[in-house]
Amino acid sequence: MPQDAEIQEILTRISQQNVVLFIGAGASVDAGAPSTSNIIQSIKAKFNAGEYTSDDFIQTCTEVLDSTYTPRVDLEAFIRNELYDIKPSSFHLQLPRLSWPAIFTTNYDDVIEKAYREITDRVQLADPVFTDTDSLTLHDRDKVKIFKLMGCISSQHPGNKMVLTREDYTNAIRNRTHIYKALRDILRDGTILFIGYSFRDYLLQDILTELSQTIGLPKLPYSYALMPHLDLTSIQANKLRERKVIPVNLSATDFSGLLSKGVKLQLTPIKDKPDVRINLKGVTKFISHRDARSYSQEFEFFSEETITNLQPDDDETRRDFFRGRLKDWTGFVRGWDFQRTPYIDLFQLVQQELSNPDINNNKSIMVFCPAASGKTMILRRLAMDVYRKLGNPVVVLRPFYEDIDFKSLVTLCE
Question: Parallel, antiparallel, or unpaired: how do β-strands 283-287 and 276-280 relate?
Fold first, then answer.
């Protein structure tokens, strides 16, 4: 096996949970995604931009939007369609079985998130991050932050934007400065592993420059880059080593095979937390704390903790509730919302539908109201009453999720 010493060092650091991943487009090729060069050619063919000779993805998209008068939404839709149906490869499916301080990706696809949903015995929960306004703490090792540096094709997060143009890229670099600063503590004892990049990859060169400027080259540990079919000149290899990057001749697929065989995590035992209680029509059900946390990444579900873990009953909390800043259910438990006559009719309609045992006659109820008329307040009150008064299970979908993890939803219901 080539470079045995470097590979063993990587595996040892992974077992110690000290490796931060940076994942590029090459890692998604085995999952069915087109290579960067292929998608560039597809974009040029689709939008009649064959005369442009750039082999840089961002430059190509910038030229298409600026010179062919293509609407941005059309270009985004084309890229989304190219990447939408890819499935996790063996490499991606190994990631949830190991513990990572953080994962960074410059890919638009959501194949990493799909892998974390698919693997039920995952070690951590996936927590995607799109902007520096999201929580950047990296100390909760029950979760792994997945930093989507270039945006995502599927997320409805308000901060999500696909980075396609030079202007987009400049703004993204500004946001990444704050994100990279969150890495400094971890990198004191850890290292970075680049997967899916090549030496000619512009993104890799930009990332190395940004990390050196943000963290400082002297403080930056030696990193590793998996580069299959490695054929670097001595000048190219020296340039990588000047940036403290050691190239390793290994593919992501071969690396995943090593992960499945050669890594035993040095995990710190986590104390079990109390089970989460759900009362349904007088019967108490229990869900393990770990399962509850897993479900909560995809949707919110009502439990006894929902209605007992409340904010203080004071003027400040009331003001936050009426200004829409209070994200929990304190105001509804305490009855601070105003009951409107249409709500009574809605509650009775829902109660009638829930009393019908015929699963082949399920109905959906859609609420239409003018903007700013209180739809959210009414529906949150309805959720509270369906759980507390009727004893039915209640699930509240996250507003930013386009792809619902139906497997988790079915498991919860069972």
Answer: antiparallel
Structure tokens at 361: 């006659």
pLDDT tops 70 at residue 402: no
Q: What is the DSSP letter of 355?
A: T
Tokens encoding 347: 């509650």
Judged on CB neighbours under 10 Å (0-12, 13-18, 19+), 216 is exposed
Which alpha helices (DSSP H) does 286-335 contain, by range?
Answer: 289-296, 304-308, 315-322, 330-333
- Write the pLDDT tens digit of every residue in 110-127: 999 999 988 888 888 888
Tokens 């009453």 appear where? 385
CB 244 within 8 A of CB 268: no
272: left (phi over 0), alpha (psi -120 to 50) or beta: beta
**C-alpha separations of 269 from 141, 142, 272 in Å:** 12, 12, 9
The two tokens of residue 65 are 């939007």
Q: What are the E-state strand segments in 220-358?
A: 223-226, 245-248, 276-280, 283-287, 299-301
CA dihedral for 371, 372, 376, 382, sign (positive or negative): negative
Q: What is the DSSP string of 242-265?
A: HTTEEEE---HHHHHHHHHHH---
**Cα–Cα dist 261/31, whole Å:** 21
Length of the chain in residues, anyone?
A: 414
Buried/exposed 156-189: b ≥16 CB within 10 Å, e otherwise: ebeebbbbbbeebbeebeebbeebbebbeebbee
pLDDT in tens, 286-301: 887 767 766 776 678 8
Q: How far is CA 99 from CA 6, 17, 176, 380, in A?
A: 20, 6, 23, 36
Token pair listed for 396: 């509240």
What count of Cα atoms within 13 Å lies in the side-chain half-sphere of residue 173? Answer: 15
